[in-house]
Design brief:
Length: 87
C-alpha cells in the first residue's frame, strides 16, 4: 500500500486544533508540516486562525488582571468555532 505524500487541505483543517495544542500524533504532525511546506493557502489560513485565537484571548483579559496575564479561552468555545467552520 502506498503512502499519501501529503494530507489534503480539508484534513489539515480537521486536525488543526490538535496540531496547535501539540496533541497531534507525531506521524500526523509530520504529514501536517509537509503539507504546510507546499501550501501557502493553508499557511495563510493557520496564521489567520492563530490571530483569531490571539484576539479571542485578548477579549477574555480581565480588567483586574495584572499586565501580561490573561484568562484561558474555554476549550469548548474553540471546538465550537472549529465545528462551525467545518460546516
Amino acid at each position: 500500500m502506498t503512502e499519501k505524500p501529503y494530507i489534503t487541505c480539508r484534513e489539515l483543517i480537521e486536525f488543526l486544533l490538535d496540531y496547535l495544542t501539540g496533541e497531534l500524533a507525531e506521524e500526523r504532525s509530520v504529514e501536517f508540516e509537509r503539507h504546510l511546506a507546499v501550501c501557502p493557502s493553508c499557511v495563510a489560513y493557520i496564521r489567520s486562525y492563530e490571530e483569531t485565537i490571539r484576539l479571542g484571548r485578548m477579549a477574555f483579559i480581565s480588567p483586574d488582571a495584572p499586565a501580561g496575564e490573561s484568562e484561558e479561552v474555554p476549550e469548548d468555545l474553540v471546538k465550537a468555532i472549529l465545528a462551525a467552520r467545518g460546516k
